[in-house]
Design goal:
InterPro entries: ATP-NAD_kinase_N, Diacylglycerol_kinase_cat_dom, Lipid_Phosphate_FormReg, NAD/diacylglycerol_kinase_sf, YegS/DAGK_C. The longest helix has 34 residues. It is built from 10 helices and 14 strands. A hairpin with a 5-residue loop joins β8 and β9. The chain is globular, with a radius of gyration of 25 Å. Strands 1, 2, 3, 4, 5, 6, 7, 8, 9, 10, 11, 12, 13 and 14 form a 14-stranded mixed β-sheet that branches. It has 375 residues and is of the alpha+beta class. α2 packs parallel to α6 and α7 packs across α9.
Length: 375
């Protein structure tokens, strides 16, 4: 092969590389203009955006599995011939909502939550209503949403493969609002606007919101133990609350008249699978536009809790015991809006994040409000 032919081939290769780089820069500029609503410069024809997805990762750096993951992510995207992803890290002050909105503003088509349930909630809050897709790389303790969507848990590389090649699914979102807080020790009630204790603030949940025993168990879980043994730490904390008092509650579903009840816990679920293979809400479907409610009660001390645990295990297998004389029981209902009021105040939680002592809460469903990438 003559040197002139080699020279021609080299020139062609350089031209191709320059063209690819130029198109990439133009596409990035176009994406940035689109994110800010800017028109193309004068005399420049509209440029087709890069058809490949721009993916952003919002990662919780406090999780030990996150260290070094950014390098793995960038390598995986390079191998898949995808644009280099954006990378954001959460902070104590902003657990992910602000980073998610920044990613969307930069033109991200997919925003991936890398962390536990708290990070997933924050990213979802920033994504709701955007029409763009949320991905999951679950590296937390409970990983509730990932379990309910049958996504890989404890395997970041497998979860990353779903982000790259999965399919999108619209799912429902739950919102819980504390209408009245229990009085603080100093007698104050309410809080600064926008804070966790603001009575106007809606708190997103993707799996289960709860009031009573379950929230008290979460609130009492030791963080050091949770880091060592994972979700088992929740059950250790729960043992300390087995002999707690039953709460007096008034429950209203949609527009039906309120009813009085004695309960240990009230669960309001978008879906119902928990760690350890437990299913609290066997009829809950994440995209049916309905919330599933479980009113849980026990009497008789440890015997009642043992019977209740048996109920949970059996209903997960599709077997239910509807005998009226049970001392541990779960009553199920369904609604689009739920309001509950309890005497004195009880701990409230959303997807494992404790809100505080609440006297009255309301929850509603937002059908199909979030698009999630699944396997």
């Amino acid at each position: 092969m003559s040197w002139t032919l080699w020279l021609a081939i080299a020139a062609l290769a350089v031209a191709v590389v320059a063209l690819v780089v130029a198109l990439g820069l133009r596409a990035q500029q176009t994406r940035q203009r689109r994110a800010h609503g800017d028109a193309p410069p004068a005399g420049e024809a509209p440029v087709e955006d890069d058809p490949r997805e721009l993916v952003a990762f919002v990662a919780n750096p406090s999780k030990p599995d996150v260290a070094g993951l950014e390098t793995v992510v960038r390598a995986a995207f390079a191998d898949a011939a995808l644009p280099d992803p954006l990378w954001f890290e959460t902070t104590v002050e902003d657990p992910g909502v602000g980073q998610t909105r920044a990613a969307l503003a930069q033109g991200a088509d997919v925003v991936v939550a890398v962390g536990g349930d708290g990070t997933v909630r924050a990213v979802a809050e920033g994504m709701v209503g955007s029409g763009r897709t949320m991905g999951l790389v679950p590296v937390g303790t409970g990983n509730l949403l990932a379990r309910n969507l049958d996504l890989p848990v404890g395997d970041a590389r497998a979860a990353l493969a779903v982000v790259i090649a999965g399919t999108d699914r619209p799912v429902d979102v739950g919102w819980a609002t504390v209408l009245r807080w229990a009085e603080d020790p100093d007698g104050a009630e309410g809080a600064e606007p926008g804070s966790t204790r603001d009575v106007r603030k809606e708190h997103i949940f993707l799996v289960i919101a709860g009031l009573g025993f379950d929230a008290a168990m979460v609130a009492d879980t030791d963080d050091d133990l949770k880091a060592k043994v994972g979700w088992v730490a929740y059950f250790v904390a729960g043992i300390r609350h087995l002999h707690g008092r039953r709460m007096r509650a008034q429950l209203q579903l949609d527009d039906t008249p309120p009813v009085d009840a004695r309960l240990r816990s009230l669960l309001i679920g978008n879906c119902g699978r928990l760690p350890g293979g437990l299913t609290l809400l066997p009829d809950a479907v994440i995209d049916d536009g309905i919330l599933d409610i479980a009113a849980i009660d026990t009497r008789g001390g440890v015997v009642g809790w043992a019977q209740l645990f048996g109920e949970v295990v059996m209903q997960g297998l599709g077997v239910r015991n509807d005998l009226p004389a049970k001392i541990g029981r779960i009553d199920h209902a369904r609604a689009r809006r739920v309001r509950v009021r309890v005497e004195g105040g009880e701990q409230a939680q959303v997807d494992g994040d404790v809100l505080g002592l609440a006297v009255e809460i309301e929850a509603r469903v937002d059908p199909g409000a979030l698009v999630v990438r699944t396997a």
